[in-house]
């Protein structure tokens, strides 16, 4: 009897795993694989212990081979560049400082790479670092629930949720300390197909 129950349980787990993989493959097919994406973002960050959230908005440029440039316009102008090896911020007076250098802080480098994968919708990278719960809402919309696997990311994130269609439209990040960040993306466009001179300089 016990052997039969174990066998049935194993079969059920395999079936659930196969179904989840089918849904993940369906989401992967829906995601547009663009090398360059521009758009606008709005962010709301709720800090643990504080009643009022922090809100900001601006525009971004995502270049898959370079990184992401976040230009915050409201409430204060600033710029942040996320690349494979660093996070750098630039202030309105033109001064810049490196927030994270992967060579000096490898653990933060993993967080950096994860953030880039989140916003770029790179499912293969996310699958290496998270247990994924995929769901296809309808013919176009989908959601992903991400729970960090054991390791450094589990010390930073509790859970990450993504929602989108051909692109990632919303990201919700719940941090271990209780902070929750929501980022929504709008006015997405893939043209011009090349970085402008100003955009390219932002990555240097």
From TrEMBL:
Keyword Zinc set for record: no
Superkingdom to which the source organism belongs: Bacteria
The keyword Protein transport is assigned to this record: yes
UniProt keyword list: Lipoprotein, Protein transport, Signal, Transport
InterPro entries attached to this UniProt entry: LolA/LolB/LppX, OM_lipoprot_carrier_LolA-like
GO BP, sorted A to Z: protein transport
Signal peptide: 1-20
UniProt subunit comment: Monomer.
Name listed for the protein in its UniProt record: Outer membrane lipoprotein-sorting protein
The species this protein was found in: Chiayiivirga flava
